[in-house]
Amino acid sequence: MTIHVPPPVSPEACPALVLNADYRPLSYYPLSLWNWQDTVKAVFLERVNIVSFYDKTIRSPSAEIRLPSVVSLKSYIPPSRNPAFTRFNVFLRDRFACQYCGAREELTFDHVVPRSKGGQTVWENVVAACSPCNLMKGDKLPNQARMYPQQKPYAPTVYDLHQNGRLFPPNYLHESWLDYLYWDSELEP
Q1: How crowded is residue 49: how many other Cβ atoms within 10 Å of its Cβ?
Q2: Average pLDDT, the chain
Q3: How do 107-111 and 48-59 pair as beta strands?
Q4: How far apart are CA 147 and CA 15, in angstroms?
Q5: Burial group, residue 20, by CB count within 10 angstroms (0-12, 13-18, 19+)
């Protein structure tokens, strides 16, 4: 008879979900996670409360600690009102879809009013675009190219990005995290 023993779980496979003091994740996309070392350090510095644990224990010569799976900050961090203008945040605002054809592959970003025609690199002038649409539009205005974004570009709020981030759950969600996240209705069998 062969007995199957599962391989040991590495601490690297045990990130902690980080919640603000109001028990909401600091961010949804990317999901606010800390590696086990940062989590243990925050526990010892008394910066967090442990909400839930993994079934994994780590040991040093002088201490033993169960790895936290969910922690909450002791001090509330007000969310930023204005998200940073980044390529990733433009894609997230536009739900990772080309604003001209809806494709989800080969995303770039397009200046609706081309820079060659005075367009600026700001929220209100940039949209996600697949490479073929971006090449087809070139440095033309939307009416010249007869290509119009499906959604008028706008400066999103942090709330907008969090809402969109909820549409793209990570590949892995530990069961102890589900009470604090809003993807769980889509994950139930």
Answers
A1: 16
A2: 88
A3: unpaired
A4: 44
A5: middle
Q: Say how many C-beta atoms besides its own lie within 10 A of residue 51's C-beta.
A: 18
pLDDT at 187: 38
H or E element that contains 162:
helix 158-165
Q: What is the pLDDT of residues 62-110, one digit of tens each?
A: 889 999 999 999 999 997 778 889 999 999 999 999 999 999 999 999 9
User: Do the beta carbons of residue 82 and residue 150 sit within 8 Å?
Assistant: no
Phi, psi (degrees; rounded to nearest 5) at 182:
-115, 30
- SS3 (DSSP) at 57: strand
Contact 142, 149 (CB under 8 A): yes
Tokens (6 digits) for 51: 């909400």
Q: How far is CA 89 from the centre of its chain?
A: 9
The pLDDT score that the predictor gives to residue 9 is 63
In whole angstroms, give the CA distance from residue 70 to residue 62.
24
CA distance 141 to 158: 29
167 and 28 Cβ atoms separated by less than 8 Å: no
